[in-house]
Write a structure and sequence with these properties.
The protein is α/β, with parallel strands linked by helices and 216 residues long. 33% of the residues lie in helices and 19% in strands. The strands form 2 sheets. It has a 6-stranded mixed beta sheet with strand order 1-5-6-7-9-8, with no helix packed on it. A 4-stranded mixed beta sheet has the order 4-3-2-10, with no helix packed on it. Helix 3 crosses helix 4.
Length: 216
């Protein structure tokens, strides 16, 4: 059974970074990590989801979920892929329309590999709660669809991975229950803070601007 929430103890890592939507931009990620001096043994990188679609290196980005130095929440594009492979023809077309054409261009061996990795994405949490000293940081793909955070609280899956209401309404409300919330999903020209909510999808697949923030 997939757990919606996951806790990570930040004391186990020397440095911790959170990265915006990758969308198949693996080489860009590697280049940006080099700039941070990322230590693949002692540091941790957490993704806000959307590892795939639109970019050229989707399988490499999916493979990240099997590395010890990497954690991720599930994004709407992982969900589109899961639905596309397991659902009806309409679900498959929805994935294709939203950037999933790369999958249909794979050879049979690569396609089998992709299918296995996409199946693994079903086990990704929707929300990661990261503790860094006394600080509580919550990471989700699009939003935490309540005004007060509580670990294990019942939530709408759709609200977590698709919702843009707060951003589109330019809401600067802070969410109670945690110090900091980090989201992707909504492309920004640059990282933006609204209350205690931080949006770090800066359109890497479109403009090469991948945001990585250091939280420890």
């Amino acid at each position: 059974m997939t757990e919606i929430y996951k806790k990570i103890d930040g004391s186990k890592y020397k440095k911790i970074f959170i990265v915006g939507d990758l969308h198949g931009s693996y080489d860009l990620l590697v280049n940006e990590l080099e700039k941070t001096g990322f230590d693949f043994v002692n540091d941790l990188l957490i993704s806000v989801g959307d590892l795939i679609d639109r970019g050229p290196e989707n399988i490499k980005c999916l493979e990240l979920i099997n590395f010890d130095w990497f954690e991720a929440v599930r994004g709407n594009h992982e969900q589109l892929a899961i639905n596309g492979l397991e659902g009806n023809r309409q679900s498959l077309y929805a994935w294709l329309y939203n950037g999933g054409s790369w999958y249909f261009e794979l050879d049979p061996i690569q396609k089998q590999k992709a299918e296995k990795l996409i199946k693994q994405c079903k086990e990704l949490p929707l929300i990661i709660e990261l503790s860094v000293g006394e600080k509580k940081i919550v990471i989700a793909h699009a939003d935490y669809p309540h005004n007060e955070y509580e670990y294990g609280k019942e939530i709408s899956n759709k609200g977590v991975i698709w919702n843009r209401d707060r951003v589109e309404n330019d809401s600067h409300i802070s969410i109670d229950g945690a110090d900091m919330f980090v989201f992707g999903h909504t492309p920004m020209r640059e990282p933006e803070q609204m209350g205690n909510r931080f949006y770090i999808d800066t359109g890497a697949v479109f403009n090469g601007n991948l945001t990585i923030i250091m939280v420890k």
